[in-house]
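Changelog-linked ticket: beta-D-glucopyranose example.
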Amino acid sequence: MSSKMRWAMLISLALVILVIATACGPAPTPAPTAAPAMSSSSAASKPAAGGKLEMFSWWTAGGEADGLKGMFDAYKKAYPSVEIVNATVAGGAGTNAKAVMTTRLFGGDPPDSFQVHAGLEVATYTPDKYLQPLDSIFTSEGWDKVFPKDLLTLLKYQDHYWSVPVNIHRANVLWYNKKVFADNKLEAPKTYDDFFKVADALKAKGIVPFVFGDKEGWESAHVFETVLIGTLGAEGYRGLWTGKTAWTDPKVTEALNTYKKMLTYTNTDHAALTWDGAGEYLLNGKGGMQIMGDWQDGWFTSKKFTDYGWAAAPGNAGIFDALSDSFAMPKGVKNQENATNWIKMAGSKAGQEAFNPKKGSICARTDCDQSLFNAYLQSAAKDWQANALVPSVAHGAAAFEKWATAYKDTMALFVTSGDVAKTQASLAQHCKDNGVCK
Ligand code: BGC
């Protein structure tokens, strides 16, 4: 399938969701009054006089923190007299950060910039009321030429750009410990049958087959999203978010049963571990496989661990489950000039090259120097070009926040309930509640 077609499918999904979001979302508020005050064209424009820059995110683990520091260092180089305040609220996928951010924004105490997933997640922040549109920065920085056209379309909400994309992450990756696999003459599983064979072999050796940490809840939704993709295929999975695929479909039942079986191969302490905490099992060779987004690659790098292999999650070959992190700029920030320069840095080649190799993501820009990236990220960049693209629901790209949260909560409960029928019924109900299914 041509890249144009792949994108067209992603966009048509975004448009469907947009229509639904508009129909179901908060009452429209008046269009933004004025564009933000802005200095001229590039990230390297004259250094600001000083003051602070408060940047809000949930990046605290390994490569997340290292990547952010990489971008802070690039900013400091351009604006040495600005003091950077790194405001983080820990919790993968923004589990805790999003609520804190909403309170701050709606309570009139915004940071200068904050992290938000590209796509409809921005609707959560009532952008026309609380955020500065970035359209003129997109124009002045020439971003309409360096970000893929369709990523630009995906970013547009209510006809404005509200955030600048800093990366592209892949969610559907199976990571494995190479030595453990070599010692046991195993290969990365391509199908679920393979997965269970490999899992049995590892179990027989006293190695945790399927490393898992679901302390924060979203991790279950994340893994299950890859099982939905692996069972329904790209088109079937996309259809779940547009109403084309019924949540009552027997394939969804099959996916739930497969996932339930996968959960019988996990470490017993999974409920006490976050994604990175669980990753320690791979590091110390006590675990075999883990399904997680490619921030895991950044985490391995931060731990100086190189003996890991990767493959698409079972059944996911040729499909890239995509998401993108971006930075927004609230209205009424305390340090306007510093914030504007930060947004420009985030979208710049220098900023993205300083950030992504450490973060474990590929650039949102199309002109980054590939030699800066490790073997995994170079392979991800190729897959991004060649694969069918599907949007991640656990990370803000497939559905608006209310539905994504309901889906995540349901799948978090499934880990303990294991109730396939009840879970499928509530997933189907969420689709109805959110106006997508009849
Ligand atoms: C974000 C990543 C982050 C991951 C784990 C995702 O939602 O997009 O940047 O590393 O959550 O916290």
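Closing comment: Example verified and attached. The mean pLDDT is 91. The two ends are 31 Å apart (CA to CA).
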